[in-house]
Amino acid sequence: MNVREKQELREHQYLSPYASFSDESQGRDEYEEPCDIRPIYQRDRDKILHSKSFRRLKGKTQVFLSPEGDHYRTRLTHTLEVSQIARTIAKSLLLNEDLTEAIALGHDLGHTPFGHAGERALNRTCDGGFEHAMQSLRVVERLERHGKGLNLSKEVRDGIINHQTSGHPTTLEGKVVQLADKIAYVNHDIDDAIRAHIISEKDIPSKYTDKLGHDLGQRLNTLIHDIISRSEGRNDIIMSPDIREAMTGLRAYMFESVYTNPVAKGQESKAEEMLSMLFIYYRDHLELLPEEYIQMIRTGSEETDRVICDYIAGMTDGYAVGRFHEIMIPVAWDVY
Predict the structure, then answer these.
(1) Structure confidence at residue 330 (pLDDT)
(2) Is residue 291 packed enough to be buried (19+ CB in 10 Å), middle (13-18) or exposed (0-12)?
(3) What is the distance between the alpha carbons of residues 273 and 269, in angstroms, rounded to a whole number?
């Protein structure tokens, strides 16, 4: 019995009967020889961690565009916070931590530069629209490794495509990530908004803070403990109705006070316009796309708009600004 098989056996001895067991995975679309050390979900986690799309998350906006300071969240730090919260819950409920972490690390791989402003721009300009959860799935299935994809397990891909509120993950681990994503972004966005002096702690309605807590640590502690206590021994991941109501109210408050705040979001219209212009430009100049994207169009395997979306969605904020400057901004030239 090799190391992987021993770990798979320990999962059956230790994990909840409601957990997703590695040796019961529905597998990959293309067969791969199993690793002799790592179970399937651990291997998926490693594939995501070493991917180019994961590394690019460090250069993508979470909420605040180009803030002055090094302590504001990026899409990468958001992803890591989701992973930490999700793993804490999964470990406490004796669920599969490797599967949970793989879903968490992969859930935003398809996000655009400039956060949801970029998503809106591509959704408006691309024939067929654009949605980041679907793009995250496309990244791992189609775009990574020069078009080969990462060949992840079906359970990880299910969690990625279903991580948004409207999704319906088929595993408890996927449901954990779905909630951890909401917990992470609502709370760290509050933290960033306070740092930016857009709101203060005392501005948050007391009907929410009295239930959830009066600082970041208290709120995270309340929400995580509530999910664990309510879900323990159940074949579901749930929250207490009053706690869920408070978190939903807190999210609504953030939309009113931060997500539509002209100070915090005043640059978003510029970002949207820039990405829309890039999209239209590349649609008229397909020859300027990288060769691997040109090949996707040439072979007829992909629609042109979708390939342009792939290219722009994969950009970091800085790379998108650089391409726009290179394409759209006149440069001085020497006539002598």
Answers:
(1) 86
(2) exposed
(3) 6
- Does residue 103 contact residue 174 with C-beta atoms inside 8 Å? yes
Six-digit token pair at 277?
């212009």
Spell out the domains of the chain, with CATH numbers in brackets: 3-265 (1.10.3210.10), 269-328 (no CATH)
Q: What is the pLDDT of residue 266?
A: 73
* Token couple for 142: 């189609």
Q: d(Cα 209, Cα 25) in Å, to the nearest integer?
A: 41
DSSP secondary structure of 67-130: -SSS-S-BHHHHHHHHHHHHHHHHHHTT--HHHHHHHHHHTTTTPPTTHHHHHHHHHHHSTT--
pLDDT of amino acid 62: 87
Q: What are φ and ψ of residue 110, in 5° steps?
A: -95, 5
> What pLDDT was estimated at residue 183?
97
Classify the phi-psi angles of 264: left when phi > 0, otherwise alpha if psi is within -120 to 50, otherwise beta. Answer: alpha
Residue 74's DSSP bridge partners are 61
Q: What is the pTM of this model?
A: 0.95
User: CB-based contacts of 201: which residues, under 8 Å, 6+ apart?
Assistant: 194, 209, 214, 215
Decide if 60 contacts 75 (C-beta within 8 A).
yes
Positions of the chain with pLDDT lower than 50, given as ranges: none
What tokens does 48 get?
A: 């995501």
Residue pointed to by tokens 């070493």: 50
- The residues pairing with 61 across neighbouring beta strands, listed in sequence order, are 74
Q: Which of 227, 231, 204, 229 is nearest to 216 (CA)?
A: 204
Interacting residues of 26 by C-beta distance below 8 A, sequence separation 6+: 153, 154, 155
At 17, list the tokens. 């009967």
3-state secondary structure of 61: strand
User: What pLDDT score was predicted for residue 261?
Assistant: 77
Dihedral of CA atoms 219, 222, 223, 225 in degrees, nearest 10, equals 150
Q: Tell me how far apart the alpha carbons of residues 255 and 10 are, in angstroms, rounded to a whole number.
A: 45
Dihedral over alpha carbons 250, 252, 254, 256 (to 10 degrees): -140
Task: Give Dmax over CA atoms of the chain in angstroms.
Answer: 79
